[in-house]
Design a protein that fits this description.
Blueprint lengths: L2 E2 L9 E7 L11 E9 L2 E10 L3 H15 L5 E5 L4 H15 L5 E4 L6 H14 L3 E4 L6 H12 L9 H19 L5 H9 L4
Parallel strand pairs: 1-7, 2-5, 4-7, 5-6
Antiparallel strand pairs: 2-3, 3-4
Length: 199
């Protein structure tokens, strides 16, 4: 994995905050992963990462930290849909009411193929081609260190944890699709130019 310092957030054409939740809140469960990924020219930068075997409440708190980091910059918030989605949506809503700030999060409902195949086919060419970077300013952060470890452990039929790379794959997938909608002449590109915000 390659590191480089992240750009100031206003320099990114698009930002996506993507979460891969686990089903259980135990130390032996899968990791919960929330990543902030930005598109800069033809590169994808993992700006911030939270990756830990932790509680749902703590995972929800990450999103408010991300929102504070992003500030006024537009950002898409998505979470991988699973069997616990209704309960997660309720928990996000309840915490938002307490804080009087709502996280505009929505489920990623796409039909997903094998996790290893998705990660390898989308992210490996970007990584080897110098298009995918982890934020050098976060290199000593335990969460970013775990993300690198999980990337390096990925292999076919491996039982190693891969929730962090899975979240990055989700963010990059969304960024690619949103970028396609912003091509000159598209409806979204016209609206963005006229109203200075995304629809």
């Amino acid at each position: 994995m390659t590191y480089k310092p992240a750009k100031p957030l206003h320099e990114y054409s698009l930002l996506v905050c993507y979460t891969d939740p686990s089903f259980k809140d135990t130390k032996k469960s899968d990791y919960k992963a929330t990543v902030l990924v930005g598109k800069w020219q033809e590169e994808f930068h993992v700006i911030k990462c939270y990756l830990e075997q932790t509680s749902t409440a703590n995972m929800i708190n990450w999103h408010f930290d991300m929102m504070e980091l992003v500030g006024e910059k537009a950002c898409y918030y998505l979470i991988e849909e699973n069997l616990m989605h209704d309960a997660l949506a309720k928990a996000f809503s309840e915490e938002g009411r307490k804080r009087k700030t709502i996280i505009p999060i929505r489920p990623d409902k796409r039909s997903k193929q094998d996790k290893f195949t998705r990660i390898e086919s989308l992210l490996e060419p970007l990584n080897s081609g110098g298009k995918l970077y982890l934020n050098a300013n976060e290199k000593d952060n335990p969460h970013m260190m775990r993300l690198e470890e999980q990337f390096l452990a990925i292999a076919p039929k491996s039982r190693a944890h891969d929730d962090g790379p899975d979240a990055v794959e989700g963010a990059v997938y969304i960024l690619n699709n949103k970028t396609a909608l912003l091509k000159p002449g598209s409806f979204m590109a016209i609206k963005t130019k006229e109203n200075h915000k995304l629809y």
